[in-house]
Specification:
The chain is an alpha/beta fold. The protein has helices at about 20-25, 45-50, 50-70, 75, 85-95, 100-110, 175-180, 195-205, 225-235, 335-350, 385, 405-410, 425-430, 465-475, 475-480, 495-500, and strands at about 5-15, 35-40, 115, 120, 125-130, 140-150, 155-160, 185-190, 210-215, 240-245, 245-250, 260-265, 270, 275, 280, 320, 390, 395-400, 415-420, 440-445, 450-455. The chain folds into four domains: about 5-45 and about 100-155 and about 280-385, FAD/NAD(P)-binding domain, CATH 3.50.50.60; about 45-95, no CATH class; about 165-280, 3-Layer(bba) Sandwich (FAD/NAD(P)-binding domain), CATH 3.50.50.60; about 395-500, Enolase-like, domain 1 (2-Layer Sandwich). α1 links the parallel β1 and β2. α1 (about 20-25) runs parallel beside α10 (about 335-350) and α3 packs across α8.
Length: about 500
């Protein structure tokens, strides 16, 4: 059967999660025609299986805990628990019941062409689209040709450790956990990262008996005190936390029945469900990387303009770009969206018409192919390396940006870290008795600028953006001294940290 001629667009974006949406939107702003290819739901992992549903599951327990800590409310809420059915119904509403019609409408309103199906690179500026799994979906167009650029934003996929019996036991990944139709009586969680800690918190709030197994400590990439605080918080919720324990074998004799884990120390753990959250890898095995000379399964390495490395450029410069988890540079939605904005802006500036209606106006210009962008150019994802923020919505919250003390020292920076207990602030005392938390700044002692910050405590995420601005802006400590915090708020910790540094 003869294949239909390729449909042509100026730009083709593979992956319609938040990262791909941002890249497509930005690329279209100088008049370029853009096709956005998606095999599943428009809006991607974050909207339906990650950020939004997980926070919907976590918020009620956090709100109840905050009420229980407030003077005058503790007695009224004593003995209360979150309502699992109501929480799951709220989660369903937050995900739109896994219907992407609204997101698809936004794509159309932005003038972007949505193509349903699985997109794979098929050579220079070519994308082959296979029919989607949904038989009711429109037929795939087959082959798309990009006149100028292809952007890959296919995200990441979870990985299962090689443990006897694990794959046959039908374990949950993060998708199954956040979309669970009911709360299991008991849940075993394997892993010590963000997903493991957040889901252990959520399901403990919802009434499940949770056992958490982690080969090392919790949140190993954060400052050590952060993981220790989260461990204490989980234990206070009744989670059976076992650190330094690996998984040796898994058995599930009956489909849907209980699962039994054998741990590395010879213990047995039985639970109604098992969540494995031991990491994710860039989704490049099924994107046709080999068709352009790249290695399937490896991250799509990019420069700071998000142009793929190791791919021969086209007549007008780099044609293949990548952003988000698929690059291996960052693993948060907000950082991927930032990369998507950079990639889309670069493509729009290099190939679009700067005089097009609605085109942004600014003095910056993308660097020539192969040349470095000026510091903090809008066409370079500079923040990936030095100022990536993250909030872990456990109890307590963990908020961080930039480098930990350990990472800064590993990079050879002349650093000095200062720490202050949030509970000693007047702003903490007004929230109620027993507020506990810790803040740390990591300072480049030679340049006297903040290169990293971590805040641990209730609602610590609210402190993060000020730290992000300090790191990105490379604001000298002597100038930060004049940023007067309002009293009585937790922001006063900035004054106390600077005093601890010696100002």
């Amino acid at each position: 059967m003869t294949e239909q001629p390729a449909q042509e667009f100026d730009v083709v974006v593979i992956g319609a999660g938040p990262v791909g949406e941002n890249a497509a939107d930005r690329a279209s702003r100088t008049g370029l025609s853009v096709a956005l290819v998606e095999a599943e739901l428009v809006g991607g992992e974050c909207s339906y299986w990650a950020c939004m549903p997980s926070k919907a599951l976590l918020r009620p327990g956090a709100a109840l805990a905050a009420a229980a800590a407030a003077p005058g409310l503790a007695a009224q809420v004593e003995g209360l628990h979150v309502d699992p059915a109501a929480v799951l119904a709220w989660r369903d509403w937050m995900t739109g019941d896994w219907d992407d019609a609204g997101a698809a409408d936004w794509v159309a309103s932005a003038g972007i062409t949505l193509v349903r199906g699985h997109g794979r690179l098929a050579g220079e500026r070519l994308v082959r689209v296979a029919a989607p799994d949904d038989p009711s979906a429109p037929a795939s167009p087959g082959l798309l040709r990009a006149r100028h650029a292809v952007v890959v934003a296919t995200g990441s996929v979870p990985v299962l450790p090689d443990v006897p019996g694990l794959a046959l036991a039908a374990p949950w990944g993060s998708r199954e956990a956040t979309s669970a139709p009911s709360v299991p009586r008991s849940l075993a969680v394997v892993g010590g990262g963000v997903v493991a800690c957040e889901m252990a918190t959520a399901f403990a709030d919802l009434g499940a008996h949770v056992t958490l197994l982690a080969r090392g400590g919790l949140l190993s990439g954060a400052e050590p005190f952060a993981g220790q605080a989260v461990e204490r918080g989980l234990r206070e919720l009744g989670v059976d936390v076992r650190l330094g324990v690996g998984l040796a074998a898994v058995e599930r004799p009956e489909p849907g029945g209980p699962v039994t884990l054998t741990t590395s120390d010879g213990q047995a753990v039985t639970a109604a469900e098992l969540l494995v959250a031991t990491g994710r890898v860039p989704r490049t095995l099924d994107v046709g990387a080999e068709s352009v000379g790249l290695t399937p399964g490896a991250p799509l390495a990019v420069d700071d303009s998000m142009a793929a490395l190791g791919v021969a450029p086209g007549p007008r410069g780099p044609w293949l770009y990548a952003c988000g988890d698929v690059t291996g540079r960052a693993s948060t939605t907000h950082q991927g969206k930032y990369q998507g904005r950079v990639a889309g802006d670069v493509v729009a500036a290099r190939f679009g018409d700067p005089q097009a209606a609605g085109a942004p106006t600014h003095a910056d210009a993308p660097p020539p192919a192969g040349a470095a962008a000026r510091p903090w150019s809008r066409y370079a994802a500079t923040a990936d390396d030095v100022a990536a923020p993250q909030v872990v919505f456990t109890r307590p919250q963990v908020a961080s940006v930039g480098l930990t003390e350990r990472e800064a020292e590993r990079r050879g920076l002349p650093v000095r870290a200062v720490t202050y207990e949030l509970g000693e602030l007047a702003g903490a005392s007004v929230t109620g008795p027993g507020y506990a938390g810790t803040a740390r700044l990591v300072v480049d002692a030679e340049r006297r600028v903040v290169v990293g910050a971590t805040f641990v405590g209730p609602d610590a995420g609210d402190l993060l953006h000020a730290a992000t601005i300090a790191v990105v802006g490379q604001v000298p400590l002597d100038r930060l001294w004049h940023a007067v915090p309002a009293y009585p708020t937790l922001s006063e910790v900035w004054l106390r940290l600077l005093e601890a540094y010696g100002l």
